[in-house]
Specification:
Shape: globular
Number of strands: 0
Strand content: under 5%
Largest sheet: none
Number of domains: 1
Radius of gyration: 21 Å
Distance between the termini: 71 Å
Oligomer: single chain
């Protein structure tokens, strides 16, 4: 079995080398496209969310914000910090869940089983990407994006039910989590988020380059890199576009799966259950979206009446404003401590 696997990987590497030699212009164009998307959309919108998520996760703010989820956490037998993963995963988008799981598992606040459960159930696309990117910019409808987003929330609830055995599986008790001081937590959040975003950008560029080889096959592009697949699905009929886009979003693409693996595999979490959850989400999310579409029908428009560029940055601007306020509070706190120390001397 091991030799077969080695031969298979060797064949894939030889095939990749041949593609690089035969289609250099397409791969270069795809890499540039991935780099452009990362610089213009991914970095401005995702980085503030990741910093905010890790800052909340590593400080005492996490305990305060997850108290409303206490009944759900008790039902699933999860520690309080799991509430942060649930909320930030559904608000911050795909990498946020993996980033918080890696932080909590490495610090011992979550067991590997619990982190695995949260990955399977709450790895989802965020509202900034779905509402402004897919909904307004690609389909010309904010309601279309809202339909996709709440379909994803409903899918996460179904996945939480299906994979609940992971959360309650016996694997030892998590260690007591000691929050960091706010200043130290903010500095570590910036450092950790920057390192994670380099990992994310690298995979986006790689799979964007590969997706340009299948520019006329929306299904293959969506499996490789989600944004290109969703964009190409717009050319299909409205209902088929809705189903295919929801399926792409549920599966999340090989690019996202590799990004998640890069964050959580070093913590000792295997991706077997996560891969099954992506296949399940690829089926469940279209069903959830179609159900919501029956209750709240949405008409697709050919042209958008909303300025997509404004929408794509509105969420990032809001989170950035919160980060500026946090920095101001930390600075005032540091000044007060310095004044108090002088008085004591």
């Amino acid at each position: 079995m091991k030799k077969t696997k080695d031969f298979l990987l060797a064949g894939i590497c030889i095939g990749a080398a041949l593609l690089l030699l035969l289609f250099p212009s397409d791969i270069t164009a795809g890499f540039r496209k991935g780099l452009s998307v990362s610089g213009s959309t991914l970095l401005p919108s995702l980085f503030p969310f990741m910093v905010l998520a890790q800052f909340i996760a590593t400080t005492n703010l996490g305990r305060l914000l997850c108290r409303p989820l206490s009944p759900v956490l008790r039902l699933l037998k999860l520690p309080a910090c799991a509430g942060n993963v649930m909320v930030m995963g559904l608000l911050g988008g795909y990498p946020s869940t993996a980033q918080l799981v890696s932080v909590y598992v490495s610090k011992g606040a979550l067991t590997k089983n619990q982190g695995n459960f949260l990955l399977c159930a709450f790895t989802a696309a965020g509202p900034a990407f779905l509402i402004s990117g897919v909904g307004a910019a690609m389909h010309g409808s904010l309601r279309f994006g809202l339909l996709l987003y709440f379909g994803g929330v409903l899918t996460s609830a179904v996945l939480a039910f299906l994979f609940r055995g992971l959360a309650t599986g016996e694997q030892g008790r998590p260690a007591r989590f000691e929050p960091l001081p706010y200043m130290q937590g903010f500095v570590e959040a910036v450092r950790g988020s920057a390192a994670s975003l380099i990992n994310v950008t690298a995979f986006v560029c790689l799979f964007s380059a590969l997706s340009f080889l299948f520019v006329n096959i929306p299904l293959t592009q969506g499996v490789l890199e989600i944004s290109m697949g969703c964009l190409n699905a717009c050319a299909l009929s409205p209902m088929l576009s809705l189903v295919l886009t929801a399926s792409f979003i549920g599966f999340s693409s090989l690019s996202i799966i590799c990004q998640v693996g890069g964050l959580v595999v070093p913590c000792g979490i295997h991706l077997k259950h996560f891969l099954f959850s992506r296949l399940a989400a690829a089926v469940l999310q279209p069903l959830c979206v179609l159900l919501l579409n029956l209750l709240f029908p949405v008409e697709q428009q050919v042209f958008s009446t909303v300025n997509p560029s404004f929408l794509s940055f509105s969420a990032a601007v809001s989170v950035s404003a919160v980060l500026v306020a946090i920095m101001a509070m930390l600075l005032l706190s540091a000044i007060e401590k310095a004044v108090e120390s002088r008085h004591t001397i």
